[in-house]
Amino acid sequence: MIRGAHVVLYSTDAEADRAFFRDVLDYPSVDAGHGWLIFALPPAELAIHPADTDGVQELFLMCDDVEAFVEQMAEHGVACSDLRRERWGLITHLTLPGGGALGVYEPTHPSPLNP
Q1: Tell me, what's the pLDDT at 115?
Q2: Which of 19, 31, 61, 107 is the most buried (most CB within 10 A)?
């Protein structure tokens, strides 16, 4: 049966984004060969939203205190967008070194991870 999820981020500068996850976010990783790092992720949730087209996915990382996260990123020289309150949480976005955007939020919704 299913025992996990493998998330893929595509990047025009994969090496820089791997370094960001390794050095800034401090995610544990293994080298799958030739510097191809595979990162351990924290527990995850899956939400299925209605959409007009299929095949669209988003990745958000969750944290307990998004304001503290923004401050920590500033210490590393990583700019985050202004905080925005949604009905499901407090959210920011940062730009990865490779140019992609990554959402980070502090959930206010009930979570299956914390029953």
Answers
A1: 67
A2: 107
Residue entry with tokens 């969750």: 62
pLDDT tens, 67-76?
A: 999 999 999 9
Q: What is the DSSP string of 66-111?
A: HHHHHHHHHHTT--BPPPEEETTEEEEEEE-TTS-EEEEEEE-S--
Q: How many CA atoms lie within 13 A of 108 on its CB side?
A: 9
User: Going edge to edge, which strands form the sheet with 89-95?
Assistant: 60-62, 101-107, 89-95, 84-86
The SS3 call for residue 17 is helix
Report the C-alpha gap between 47 and 40 in whole angstroms: 20
Q: Which of 114, 115, 93 is nearest to 42 (CA)?
A: 114
Structure token pair of residue 6: 């493998």
